[in-house]
Amino acid sequence: MTQPDNSFRIAICDDEPQDAEYINKTVKEILQTENIDNEIFCYNSGRGLTEAIGNGVSFDLLLLDVMMPQQNGIELAAYLRKNLYDASIIFISSNREMAMYGYEVSAARYLAKPIEPKRLREALLFCFGNKKNSSILVPVNKGTRRVMTKDIKYIETHGRGCKIMCEAGELLTKTLISELENKIAGKDFIRCHQGFMINLRFIRELRTSELVLDGGVSIPVSKHRIKEVRRAVLSYLSD
Fold it and tell me: Which residues contact 148 (CB under 8 A, 6 or more apart)?
């Protein structure tokens, strides 16, 4: 399924039609005021949402009602987290006592019904900021792709551009490695060679003149960069 990469994709899951309609309307108004391109999808049950995700529909943010029949919002979030689904989550409920359970599934916010637009706005902008900070826009042949930085294993100079190796496969772009380096500075990446930049979280071994990543991939390390790379690896592992 082809999906826009620069749009803030939101799923609202609430079994109360009036509440879902109000949330949908308010979210749209807030994002339009902030000039944030968005797509909003509504579901009246956890089953409907999980089926959509299972069919390849992706979301940046889930707005989940806590008190739903069959599977409540907390249970739904726990199921998604167990299956490594890392979209931001905002819980919405009239039951304030359930808020403490949000921490167990790394929820971004917990909003009480009736929702205050001011609090909803803060929560939406917070989650949108997380989306921007955890991804980069990369020009490709057929437009622009949004790539999650955590999924990038390494970047290699390729022809007049770069090859971005992700967990799901490779992506070719005409963007120079120096430009990509500026985009992801401070996001656990380091330039280890003139033609290579690696994601520190995928390193498994540091040798004299190379790095070994997950899967046994070897990446060269320049002699004049080895000290900097070693410091960066040790600092990352000690955090």
Answer: 134, 135
